[in-house]
Amino acid sequence: MRMSEGVPRGRIAELYHPEMFQEHEEVIVFTRDEFNRVYTSMRDQIDYINKTDLHLDRNEEWKLIGYWPKIIEKVHILDANMDSIFKKEPLQCYLDAYLYNTVRDTQREFVESENKVSVKL
Amino acid sequence: MLMRYSYGIMDRRKILLYNSQLFLKGNDLLVFPSKDFHKWYGDIKEYIDGLYQINSVNMKKLKPMDISELNLAVAVLLNITEELENLFDSKMRSDFSYKYISALNEKYKKRSSGYSSDMRRCDIQIPIKPEITGKLKYQHQMEIVEEAWKLFIRVNHKKNRS
To answer: Do B32 and A3 touch (CB under 8 A)?
Structure first.
């Protein structure tokens, strides 16, 4: 999907890659931190289920009875994460997922914000 | 805790925000085309609903889960992973031929508690009635006598004080 990062300047937002969008196109704007939290949490849930799947010996099918509720638990968190994007009321699941899924420090993975650099206009 | 988001419109290579008060000066923003984003959101919702549908067989307790259903769930998850990756791939173009709006009955999303009917059955059967033998009867009588003896002493003690 076309996307860009940006910074707010009062009523307008400046983009790093304005060429991605067409003139008068409607866009949706999130804060990077919050979106990162949802995104990372979703990746974590998927990783968990994939790992469970990998470690399950296909000859020990009966173990699935125990694993399945855990898998569905993670699916619930996935769903809660998606709901948290557009829902207007605060979600308890959102808070739970927030507490139990500590987001890793991603400072180093990103390029430095435009805020810290002096902008020449 | 609410997720902050705002719609906006592109105007002369900048964005006019509808709810600009939500964002603080130091925030970094992520911007997506709203039409594409809603399509992406619907797609992921569709896959998650698919996972719930796989689980619905389990909820009705018609038959135990088997490996084929796990395989199916993992395949659906693979699609979600792909969608998550596509979100940041600027070359991917969204397919607007349809849009999914989740209409799954909420009852399929209910979280079942860990306390199963099997556990309940065990709990009910645990209290075993002891067989009353002569020895047990004697033991109980002695317990009553001891309790009475303690009470007697306590009352006597009070009388002596006053």
So the answer is: yes
ipTM for the complex shown: 0.74
d(CA A74, CA B77): 11
Residue numbers of the domain that contains A94: 31-113
pLDDT tens sequence across B72-113: 999 999 999 999 999 988 888 888 888 888 888 888 887 766
Q: The pTM is what?
A: 0.70
Domain residues of chain B, as ranges?
8-115, 129-162
Structural contact between residues B87 and A1, judged by C-beta atoms closer than 8 angstroms: yes
Minimal CA separation from A112 to chain B, in Å: 10
For chain A, what is the domain count?
1
CA distance A108 to chain B (A): 15
